[in-house]
Write a structure and sequence with these properties.
The complex is a heterodimer of chains A (188) and B (191). With 188 residues, chain A is α+β, with helices and mostly antiparallel strands. Chain A is built from six helices and six strands, in the order αααββαββββαα. Helices cover 40% and strands 28% of the residues of chain B. The chains are: A alpha+beta (188), B alpha+beta (191).
Chain lengths: 188, 191
C-alpha cells in the first residue's frame, strides 16, 4: 500500500515555477499522513493539524456542507463505526499553488451501523477524488466526489439493476398527476 | 507558454469545444486510445467512442447540457479539475429511464487527467450519479430515507437472501413516499 506521490516531478516543478513551493510538498506529506494514519488507526487527532478550525467539507451524501473540524471528525467516526476496517489507499496526489487533488480508494467491510443500515457484512470499495483548497498549509475547503449510487448498490440498498423500470414509470405517472392537479388548482 | 499552461488550455478547449460543442471533435483533444475510468461502470471506457458514451447519455436526458469549469490546475503531465454539469431534464436519461420532468440539475465532477503527446490520454472521473435520481425526485435525500426501511434492508442482507425482497420493499416505499406527497397535496386542497 504505497501512495504514488511523484516526488521527482515535484522537484522539477519547484525549479520551473515559483508557485509550486517546497511548502506544498510538506503540506502533501502532512495531509497524506493524516489520511492514512487517521483512517487506518481511527485516531483523528492529526486532523486538527491539517484542517483550519472552520474548514468546509462538501461531500456527496451530505445535503449541506459540513463546517468545522468537529463536524468532519464526526463524519469520519461515523464512517469508521460502519466500516471499522476502513482503509484508504492514496493512488495519486498532486497540486499547484493552493489547490491539491487527491485520488484514493476506500475499502472496508460493513460491520457496524452505517447511515442507519444495520451491518450487512458486505465489502465496499469506493473510488474517490477530493479537491482541497489550502491556506497556510492547512485545508480550508474540501470538495469530495464519489458515486453514492455505487455505495448503495454494494450495500444492497439499491437493487443490482438500479431502480426497476416499473417503479420509474409509477413515479413518472405520479409526478404528472401532481403537475396536472397543481395547474387545475391554479385555473380554479 | 509552459507545458502546464498548455495542459490547462487543452482541458479548457476540450470542455468548450467537445463537451459544450461537437462530440465528433473529441479526436482533436483526446488520444485515440483514451482510457476513461468512470463510476457508472466497473470497466473503464476505451477509445474515443468509449469517451463519447457518457456525454451522449447525458445529452439524451438533458438536451441543453452545459458544462462550466470551477477550477483547473496542471502539474507536470497531469491535470486536475472540478467542473459542473448543468442541464434540464427534457429527454430520457438512459441511466434513469424516467419520463421528462423538466427539472434542472447540477452535477459536480472531480476529474484527474493524464496528458500524453499533447492529448488527454487517461481520465478518472468522480461524480455522484445518485444525486441525479434525487434531483429528479425519484429518491429522497439519504438522510430522509425511512430508518425502518434501512433496517429491513440490512436484515435481509444479513440473511444473504437473493435481493428480490429488497426490490419489493424499495418499490413499495418509493411508491408510499410519492403517494404521500401526491395525496397529501389533495388532502390539503380539500380543507
Amino acid at each position: 500500500m504505497l501512495a504514488s506521490v511523484d516526488w521527482g516531478t515535484f522537484g522539477g516543478c519547484i525549479k520551473e515555477r515559483w508557485r509550486c513551493t517546497v511548502s506544498l510538498e510538506e503540506d502533501m506529506a502532512h495531509i497524506r499522513r493524516g489520511y492514512e494514519d487517521g483512517w487506518s488507526t481511527g485516531d483523528f487527532t492529526p486532523v486538527d493539524e491539517f484542517l483550519v478550525p472552520n474548514t468546509i467539507l462538501h461531500a456527496p451524501i451530505q445535503p449541506e456542507p459540513i463546517v468545522g473540524r468537529d463536524g468532519v471528525k464526526d463524519l469520519m467516526m461515523k464512517l469508521r463505526t460502519g466500516l471499522p476496517d476502513l482503509k484508504i489507499t492514496i493512488e495519486e496526489m498532486f497540486g499547484v499553488g493552493d489547490t491539491l487533488l487527491v485520488r484514493y480508494t476506500a475499502r472496508g467491510t460493513h460491520l457496524g451501523d452505517f447511515m442507519g443500515i444495520p451491518p450487512t457484512g458486505r465489502k465496499v470499495v469506493l473510488d474517490e477524488i477530493e479537491v482541497h483548497q489550502l491556506a497556510n498549509g492547512q485545508i480550508q475547503e474540501m470538495w469530495l466526489e464519489f458515486d453514492a449510487a455505487s455505495l448503495l448498490l454494494q450495500l444492497g440498498v439499491l437493487p443490482p439493476g438500479g431502480i426497476p423500470r416499473p417503479v420509474l414509470w409509477i413515479i413518472g405517472q405520479l409526478q404528472r398527476l401532481r403537475g396536472t392537479r397543481r395547474s387545475n388548482g391554479r385555473s380554479v | 507558454m509552459t507545458t502546464t499552461d498548455e495542459n490547462v488550455a487543452l482541458f479548457r478547449n476540450a470542455v468548450d469545444l467537445v463537451w459544450n460543442g461537437d462530440l465528433d471533435r473529441a479526436g482533436e483533444f483526446f488520444a485515440s486510445d483514451v482510457i476513461v475510468h468512470h463510476p457508472i461502470q466497473k470497466e473503464p471506457f476505451y477509445g474515443l467512442e468509449g469517451f463519447k458514451q457518457f456525454p451522449r447519455m447525458l445529452r439524451q436526458g438533458f438536451p441543453d447540457l452545459h458544462v462550466t469549469i470551477e477550477r483547473v490546475i496542471s502539474e507536470g503531465d497531469r491535470i486536475g479539475a472540478r467542473w459542473i454539469i448543468h442541464g434540464t431534464h427534457h429527454g430520457t436519461f438512459p441511466l434513469l429511464p424516467l419520463r421528462p420532468t423538466g427539472r434542472k440539475i447540477t452535477l459536480p465532477v472531480n476529474e484527474i487527467l493524464h496528458v500524453r503527446d499533447g492529448k488527454l490520454a487517461e481520465l478518472w472521473l468522480e461524480l455522484n450519479i445518485l444525486s441525479v435520481a434525487q434531483q429528479l425526485g425519484v429518491l429522497p435525500p439519504l438522510d430522509k430515507l425511512p430508518p425502518q426501511l434501512l433496517k429491513v434492508v440490512g436484515r435481509l442482507q444479513q440473511l444473504r437472501r437473493p435481493p428480490r425482497p429488497v426490490v419489493g420493499v424499495i418499490a413499495l416505499t418509493l411508491f408510499g413516499l410519492i403517494a404521500r406527497q401526491a395525496f397529501g397535496h389533495r388532502r390539503r386542497q380539500a380543507y
